[in-house]
Amino acid sequence: MSSLQSWRDLNIDEVNEKVNQICPLQSDLTDSEKIIFSVLRDAIKEKGLPIQLRIAGGWVRDKLLNIQSKDLDFTTDKLTGVEFANIILDFLKRNNRLDLAGRISVIKANPEKSKHLETAHMRLCGIDVDFVGLRKETYKQDSRCPIIEVGEAAEDALRRDLTINALFYNVTQKIVEDLTGKGLIDLKNRVARTPIDPIQTLTDDPLRALRVIRFSCRLSLAIDPQLSEGLKIDEIHKRILTLISRERIGEEMIGIFLRSGDDMHRMHAVDGLRLIAAHKLNDVIFPLGQEKWNEQEISIGICIADAPE
Question: How confident is the model over 151-162, as pLDDT tens digits?
Answer without folding.
Answer: 788 888 998 999
